[in-house]
Amino acid sequence: xxxxxxxxxxxxxxxxxxxxxxxxxxxxxxxxxxxxxxxxxxxxxxxxxxxxxxxxxxxxxxxxxxxxxxxxxxxxxxxxxxxxxxxxxxxxxxxxxxxxxxxxxxxxxxxxxxxxxxxxxxxxxxxxxxxxxxxxxxxxxxxxxxxxxxxxxxxxxxxxxxxxxxxxxxxxxxxxxxxxxxxxxxxxxxxxxxxxxxxxxxxxxxxxxxxxxxxxxxxxxxxxxxxxxxxxxxxxxxxxxxxxxxxxxxxxxxxxxxxxxxxxxxxxxxxx
Length: 272
Fold this sequence. Notes:
With 272 residues, the chain is of the alpha+beta class. 29% of the residues lie in helices and 25% in strands. α1 (14-32) packs antiparallel against α2 and α5 packs parallel to α6 (214-226).
């Protein structure tokens, strides 16, 4: 378990929430070591017993805060729309990577206030790494101990490293990376694309899909922002949470911050 915190949080229950996330990660790994089965949800995305067990553990700990929860694995209770604060969680981000046994899957827990991500937690069970950020407090990674993380200072796009999905790289995304003259492109699963940029190990990730949902970005948005980076849609608009439609309908762009406008300009050129 992770005993101390790297800052004084505005959320008194944060320590217990972190313990719950670690416990959910342990349960995910238990399932990972078995000959588990995979089913399909209504949207054709995969679900396993690990998704279900993790969701159960996370809800048990988060419900004690008295804050409404929006989870990928539950029916969407629209009463959340009248709430100022909600949790948005993905109990197992990267289920396809889990099924394919790449090890690149995470747990994502984000807290929203007034439609903005104000706290993010991402846990990588295989590596036992926790990423944490809270608005105004900075971004941190826990391996053996807490360490402050920051994005790179690279401002020349052609010298940047891009991260892309293992499973969903489209032809348009390939053309965009060409337009940006980015030569170094690495595939990685789940929310690890954003934690890598937040940690200074890459500079840009983009996706043009309209299938990304609020639980895919909520936790990572706060982390990348507090690390000095930026996350918007493909037109440069800030992402808004706890809305009627949970899809991000105009894709996602994540950068180290310094190349964000250059990336948006490249997108605009290709769209014109």
